[in-house]
Amino acid sequence: MPTLTPGRVRHSVVFRLRHDEGSEAEADFLRANAALASIPGVEAFELMREVSPKNEYRFALTMEFADRDAYAAYNEHPEHVKFVSERWDSEVDDFLEIDSETL
Known about the structure:
The protein has helices at 24-34, 68-76, 78-91, and strands at 9-17, 43-49, 59-65, 92-100. By secondary structure, the protein is α+β, with helices and mostly antiparallel strands. It has a single domain (9-100), classed as Alpha-Beta Plaits, CATH 3.30.70.
């Protein structure tokens, strides 16, 4: 992953779904999650499977934004708001979100 440059924001989330591992419901959620990459301002989108046995999260998601304004616009975008209210809130069992800038 490239080094984050000054002014940019990296949005990272690790999460665990309520769906059975390998289920169609899990695959459907991940496809819907990946569609967030098409929201304007989203850059360097990656959706990954967690491999460490050191935590209980199963998936990781990262994306970058040019600046805080672009990140705020993403958070307020109707497709993101819809995804959170219709899918994330009911299908994600637990998560940790980290939004970062360079020091």
